[in-house]
């Protein structure tokens, strides 16, 4: 299968087991989003072969929150 098919299967699995698939219910304010980005700076994020920037994290969390 391709990446989009795998992503869809993972999403469906998360829904089935009750994992959060978005952040809408949290109604995050800008301070909370800032904290979420800050807390995401785990050392493992820097071991990722794809460079993860704060801007990428803000974009991700904002897309999940609205």
Structure description:
The chain is an all-alpha fold and 66 residues long. 56% of the residues lie in helices and 0% in strands. It has three helices and no strands. The longest helix has 15 residues, at 3-17. The chain is globular and about 35 Å long. The N and C termini lie far apart (30 Å). The mean pLDDT is 84.
What labels describe this entry?
66 residues, mainly alpha, 0% strand
In short:
The chain has 66 residues and is mainly α.
Count the helices. How many?
3
Name the beta content range: under 5%
pLDDT average, as an integer? Answer: 84
Overall shape: globular
Largest sheet: none
Radius of gyration: 14 Å
Q: List low-pLDDT spans.
A: none
Q: Structural class, from secondary structure content?
A: mainly alpha
- The total count of strands amounts to 0
What is the distance, rounded to the nearest whole angstrom, between the alpha carbons of the first and last residues?
30 Å
Sequence of secondary-structure elements: HHH
Percent helix range:
55-70%
